[in-house]
Amino acid sequence: MLLSHLFNPVQIGNMIVKNRLLMSAMSINFGVDENCLVTDQLCEYFVERAKGGVGMMLVGGGSVHPGGQELPDLPQMYTDDCIPSLKKMVQKIKPYDTRFGVQLMHGGRQSYLPEKVAPSAIPAPAVVKGEVRALEIYEIKSLISCFGDAARRCRDAGFDFIEIHGAHGYLINQFLAPNSNIRTDEYGGSFENRTRFLFEIIEDIQMKTGMDFPIGIRINGNDYIENGWDLQSAVRLAPLLEAAGAAYLHISGGVYGSTELTIPSMYTGQGCFVHLAAEVKKHVGIPVVTVGRIKDPNHADDILKQGKADIISLGRSLLADPQYPNKAAQGRFSEIRPCIACCLGCIHAVLAKEPGSCVVNPDVGREYKIKDEKKPDTVQRVLITGAGPAGLAAARVFKLRGHEVVVCEKKPDSGGLLSLAARAPGRNELGDILRFYQNEIQRLKIDIRFNAELSLELIREVKPDMVVLATGSMPEMPLIKGLFQNRMELLTCVDVMEGKTVPGKKVIVLGGGMTGLITADYLATQGKEVVVLNRKKSFAEEMSSNDRFYLRERLKAGKVTLFKNVRIQSFSPDGVLFTVNDEEVELQDYDMVVISEKHDAIRDARKLKKEVNIPFHFIGDAKNPRHLMYCISEAEEIARSV
């Protein structure tokens, strides 16, 4: 099915854009040198997305002042020294007919700096810690000029447009919102005063770049926090921004500490902020951009068809697959590698001040290293055992590089433990990446054999040059006094997610990692009374904070009881005795114990290595049980190494 709206051109100011897809600004936290000037790493990252066919792209985190640098490794726009490297990047994008812009911002109280400034001396409600100093009037005037100077540098570097970041709890949003702006001067109090900073920035930019240089404005439709900026205020502001010369409005939501996160995880519905843009669009004539987990091209096209927005903003979907626009335009929907909204490689890593990445696309940030990669001269025959995500990912890249591939899987279907995790409430999108790999296996005509375990006979038949073991892992049974002598049913998290009958109504889950919590959630939705005993200090450390936030909210709603720092003394016939913070706790009248702590790698097939003179390689959980990110990155790396 071809899309009827997504690939129509759109006019923004005096700029014609070839389609309705905008790559939103993302603070990717890589690709700059010690002076925060852009390098080839950032250039090639954008070149790859421009090649993919997106209509517009934004450089994220363009700081207008060193005191407002959100993260340490983002591009600076606050001296003319930035212009040469930016100009070089712009020239690399020009051949691809993609309109290229910069999002200009000041982090305010949400900057990762020891000294933070804001409209008022009110610390950020979450994520970024530390004291905040209220800006003086002369400093506000200076920052207004900084925005204008930064925009002029972007114009001089050859960018097509800029976007002012007035959303997500950063400095401009802090001026707009009553809960972060309690000033009593001309920049606080009334709606007119709280919006003054933004309008003076627009005016300064226009004075320094000319009226023909398009300025987009990103604002929140709702801060989703008490006494924050709301939709009524956004609707009131939108026509005023249009009158002031804004070329488009980009409507988003959320701030640090909000009840709806700016970067929502898989637990949030797709298109979660579309209703905000739809309401704003009723009040303006300029193009309106919508955002918020829009990953399906048909969904994106329907939003445009229904008149809820004029442009679709994609962020993580273009991290996962830079070729998303081209594939969508050609109707190759099943070939689009999907974002699974785990938030781990993108937002979680970045907030930890690490380079951004992507769980399903290990090439993010490595584009400059692999841009001239060539296929190998010698074709290898590769036998992969295990058709979980690691095995499927490896098979795909081996085949794309020209090798002959055979996959054997002892079960009747593919997916491994990830297919079970996708059965948990709210986590069905984990299955999207499995479906992508399964479709790729079919498209690439890879020989995959089910109900086939690795054996000496199979090796002799296939005659591989190498064997890749992607056999996964299984839960480890702990040795705890009374665990195997009680009357309670004893199952693992795998047993539960495979659909084995869970007797009774009261369940103890041993393990507070990701698998333990999603198993507890699964049981709670079945009406079970669930207690989680976590012997570690923190819950689900392997999850992103955004993903974990929504899961913890679900557990609260399901009335799941959580204990951490637990020291188990012994299991009784129908319960358990343990201590928490030196206090003794006893649970009784329970029906079942579910084990969900450590996993053991399955390496039974390694015994065959002694019988054949062939290299064996372990990847994914078979190497060491860890997160999906490592499974996929190791899989692609082994395929590239041959």
How would you portray this structure in words?
The structure is a single chain. With 642 residues, the protein is an alpha/beta fold. Helices cover 32% and strands 19% of the residues. It has 20 helices and 27 strands. Helix 2 crosses helix 3 (137-157) and helix 13 (389-400) packs parallel to helix 20.
Structural descriptors:
single chain, 642 residues, alpha/beta, TIM Barrel, Rossmann fold, FAD/NAD(P)-binding domain, 3 domains, eight-stranded parallel beta barrel, five-stranded parallel beta sheet, 32% helix, globular
Q: How large is the count of helical segments?
A: 20
Which word captures the global form?
globular
Measure the end-to-end span.
38 Å
| Largest β-sheet summary | 8 strands, parallel, barrel
Which fold does the CATH topology of the largest domain refer to?
Answer: TIM Barrel
Cross-sheet strand order for the largest sheet: 3-4-5-8-9-10-11-12
Can you give the helix content as a percent range?
Answer: 25-40%
Top-tier CATH class of the largest domain: Alpha Beta
Unreliable residue runs: none
Nearest-angstrom radius of gyration?
27 Å
Number of strands: 27
Mean pLDDT across every amino acid position? 96
Q: Under the CATH scheme, which architecture of the largest domain would be assigned?
A: Alpha-Beta Barrel
Our estimate of the beta-strand percent is 15-25%
Corresponding CATH superfamily of the largest domain: Aldolase class I
Structural class: alpha/beta
**Tally of individual domains:** 3
Compact overview of the structure:
The chain contains 20 helices and 27 strands. It has 642 residues and is of the alpha/beta class. It has 3 domains: 10-370, TIM Barrel, CATH 3.20.20.70; 381-474 and 601-640, NAD(P)-binding Rossmann-like Domain (Rossmann fold, 3-Layer(aba) Sandwich); 477-597, FAD/NAD(P)-binding domain (3-Layer(bba) Sandwich), CATH 3.50.50.
